[in-house]
Every structure is written in structure tokens, then in C-alpha cells.
Amino acid sequence: MQMQRSQLDIAPTIAQLLNIEYTADGDPIEEIVEEFSGDFDEIVLLIVDSLGFNIYTDYLHNFEYLSLSLSKDMARRREQKREDEEMVFKLKSVARYTTPCIASIFTGKKPEKHRMFSTDDAYETHLKSILEVATEKGYKTGIVMERRGALSFKDKLSFVVPVDNREEIISFDEETVEGVLKTFLKTDLLVAHLRTIDVINDYEYSTKIMNGFLRRIGEKFTRSGRRGLFFICGDHPVHTDLSEKNVALLVFRS
Fold first, then answer.
1. HSE (CB half, 13 Å, CA atoms) of 246?
2. Cβ atoms within 10 A of the Cβ of 34, count?
3. Of 61, 116, 151, 183, whose Cβ has the fewest other Cβ atoms within 10 Å?
4. Residue 29, SS3?
């Protein structure tokens, strides 16, 4: 297990992996940069709504795909006589709900600086996320998420895939997964937002469902021969446990 970091560190970590200068309140996570620089074809950031650190650890038995992927990465590093510790990080969450947390993940800025507390604010900001800066630097970028959030990136990224909101959250996430699978061969940096754990508070059930979604995406990458560097990250802890202040970040290569 690694030292505790912050959600503010994700954007500068991605920036350094892509050799982009990017100003943020956080710092690159050096373990990730040192391990994976130059060893991937694409970065895939999957934001798993409500993946608090306690949800990850308490329901680790259901995240079979994540455990398998982390173990494979460790075995590969061990063969190369490198550090073989799992790339699992405890990140301090900047808020208790989605919009300011995702904005901090995308920009590396504290909420009081990015001032994005609702989706409407995303349409008014002049801050550029790491996705937009990467696009300007010539990378092919994409986002798959709820329609209004996705469309705040219209004409700013290479591919914008909006998903209509609905009460049936598993159907929503299924469409999000399909959006990822239809887009990943065209992008260098792809982001998606999966919401089942946030909506279905039967965590024994919802974590199993989420594991299936992550497996579908990861296995499709593997079959494609494309080396995906996956960042699986929570946006905030579950709303039902106010004692948890951290989210999980897991990093591995497909």
C-alpha cells in the first residue's frame, strides 16, 4: 500500500506521463510516473462514483478483475526485478459530492480555485482541464459521461460521447461501457464516469456489477493488443458513511 495522496495529484500525474506542462495544486505521483512512463498506448481514467477507500477494501472480494490486474502487473515487475508493490493509493477526497470532485480530478485544482460546484459551472469556467490541454497538444482525447456533463466539453475534445441520464442506473452504465468500447481505439486519453455504486446502496451487489463493467473494458483492451494504462478512481466516498474521507485509486496496465 502506498502513502496517502490527493485527488489533486491525478491531473499532474497524467500530464507528466504525456510529457505536458500543466500547473496544478497537486503533484505527480512519482511511483506511477516512474513505473509506466513510455509503457502504454493510451491512458484510460475510469471514475467510479462512490468508490470510497473503505468500499474498495471492504468489498475487495467482489473486485476480482481489479485484483487480477494488479497481481499481473506485480508479477511483471517482479520478473523485471523492479518494485512489486500494488499500485493502490488512498486519495483524500476534496468534497462529498460528484461535481467538485471530478472537476478537481480533471484540473488538479482545489474546489475554491476551480469553482465548479454544479454542472452549470462547468459551462462558465475558463480553466482548462488536462483533457483540453492534451487535445491542444495534439493528443486524441475522449469523454463518456452523463449528457450535460459531457457536452460541457463539446468542441474542446476529440470525441464527446453523451449518455442520457435515467433512473435505471445499470442501463446507464452499460451504455457508458459501450461508449468506451466504441471509442478507445481512436484515443490517447479517454475518460468515463460509472455510477452504479453511488445509486445502488446494496454494495455487495453493486460492487459485483461494477467489477463486471471494469472487466468488460479491460478485457476488450487486452484482446485489441492495445496497452491501456488504467486509472480506476473514486470521486467521493459513499454518502452513507460520513466517517470515510478518502477514495481509492488503482493503476495498472492492461
1. 15
2. 11
3. 61
4. coil
